[in-house]
Write a structure and sequence with these properties.
elongated
Length: 199
């Protein structure tokens, strides 16, 4: 009798272990399939792009670079705490976006955007300042610098918004379009802040 009970317990335990093993394997398999699908979807998203996406990134990279350059000019030229804070926010937001844009372009087999900035006619791009404008700003200080910097940065931001809206209308890559959406929201907010500073 005891042998039969022992055998029955062993059989039941074995069945439970077998079922548990099947269940775990099934769960692992489902998780692996989900991970694989997500990875494939991400890869497809990164691999889908058109000329508008490339043009936007190639144009926005130097556009951001000039905004960072203008933000760097603030140090030592103004005591306006609001402008100093805004310049810091512009650098903090736009430098990582530049790195992201360069990464996408490299991934798509496009030239390094930093290399393409050499000798670029900045005045021909939307909202970009000419070399003469940049030199004029660099020579300013105090309230004159504040006024010129705010006016130039507003124009610069408006150019970026126009470029981002073109990407939203014509682009294909969802990640690049999300970046364009973020740029529009962020720079519209900063334009409102700068207009308030100008009074």
């Amino acid at each position: 009798m005891r042998t039969k009970i022992t055998t029955a317990i062993a059989a039941t335990a074995g069945t439970a272990l077998l079922l548990a093993g099947c269940s775990t394997g099934s769960t692992d398999s489902t998780a692996a399939q989900s991970t694989s699908v997500a990875a494939t979807s991400a890869a497809e998203s990164q691999g889908t792009f058109n000329d508008a996406d490339v043009n936007f990134l190639e144009g926005m990279y130097p556009h951001h670079a000039q905004a960072v350059e203008m933000a760097d000019m603030v140090s030592g030229r103004t005591d306006n705490a609001d402008i100093v804070t805004l310049a810091g926010a512009i650098k903090a937001a736009q430098q990582p976006e530049m790195d992201q844009m360069a990464g996408w372009l490299r991934q798509w087999g496009q030239p390094d955007p930093a290399a393409g900035m050499q000798g670029m006619p900045h005045g021909d791009m939307q909202g970009m300042m000419s070399p003469d404008q940049m030199q004029g700003l660099e020579a300013m200080s105090g309230a004159d610098f504040d006024r010129m910097w705010l006016n130039m940065m507003i124009e610069h931001h408006q150019g970026a918004i126009d470029m981002a809206n073109t990407e939203l209308a014509d682009g294909e890559n969802p990640e690049v379009k999300q970046l364009a959406t973020d740029i529009v929201a962020e720079q519209q907010r900063e334009i409102a802040d700068m207009q308030a500073m100008l009074g």
